[in-house]
From TrEMBL:
Protein name: Group II truncated hemoglobin
Presence of keyword Metal-binding: yes
Pfam family, one: Bac_globin
Superkingdom classification of source: Bacteria
Family, per entry: Belongs to the truncated hemoglobin family. Group II subfamily.
CDD domains: TrHb2_PhHbO-like_O
Named cofactor requirement(s): heme
SUPFAM superfamilies for the chain: Globin-like
PROSITE patterns in the cross-refs: GLOBIN_FAM_2
GO MF annotations in UniProt: heme binding; metal ion binding; oxygen binding; oxygen carrier activity
Length: 146
């Protein structure tokens, strides 16, 4: 911990606070899906989602709350989740991983985050995104699931 800069991201709820708490995460996620709707780079990934992403918005914002050290809203509302396992129902290769991260990068750039937190958050998100790809590669789409 640096007394001048507050706790390091990843300690306690420092990241959740740096993201602007729940309203900040809701704005981030709303912008994320808006970028995904509009960016031609993301068209392939957008097609994996339902037309109406309001439920997906709440689920992702709730997940990010707990993941960044804030209230565990996803667990409270929806129960447990393993992110890599959950995503095995879609084909997620490098292109899909990068398109998803591209939308996040664009959405993060729209937030009033410090450059340090913006960089940290994107770096942290690359970890589960890559894990999703790896698990998907090891366990391709199961028959009977779309
Ligand atoms: C690697 C690229 C990724 C792709 C292509 C992808 C794709 C998807 C899709 C298609 C859905 C379903 C939305 C719906 O049907 O409503 C979804 C849900 C979700 N994703 Fe991802 N995702 C990716 C990465 C991530 C990452 C890195 C995280 C976490 C940091 C994440 C967290 C979630 C959560 C929490 C949900 C909602 C789960 C639920 O339905 O309860 N995703 N994702």
């Amino acid at each position: 911990m640096n007394p001048d800069q507050g706790p390091a991201f990843g300690v306690g709820d420092a990241s959740f606070q740096a993201a602007g708490g729940e309203p900040g995460l809701q704005r981030l996620v709303a912008d994320f899906y808006q970028v995904m709707d509009l960016a031609p780079e993301a068209a392939g990934v957008r097609a994996m989602y339902p037309a109406d992403v309001s439920d997906a918005r709440d689920r992702l914002a709730s997940f990010l709350s707990g993941w960044l050290g804030g209230p565990k809203r996803y667990a409270e509302k929806y129960g447990g989740i393993s992110i890599p396992q959950f995503h095995t129902r879609w084909q997620v290769g490098e292109a899909e991983r990068d398109a998803w991260l591209f939308c996040m990068e664009q959405a993060i750039a729209r937030q009033p985050f410090t450059p340090e937190f913006a960089e940290y958050l994107l770096r942290q998100l690359r970890v589960p995104a890559e894990r999703i790809r790896q698990v998907q590669a090891a366990c391709p789409m199961r028959p009977g699931r779309s």
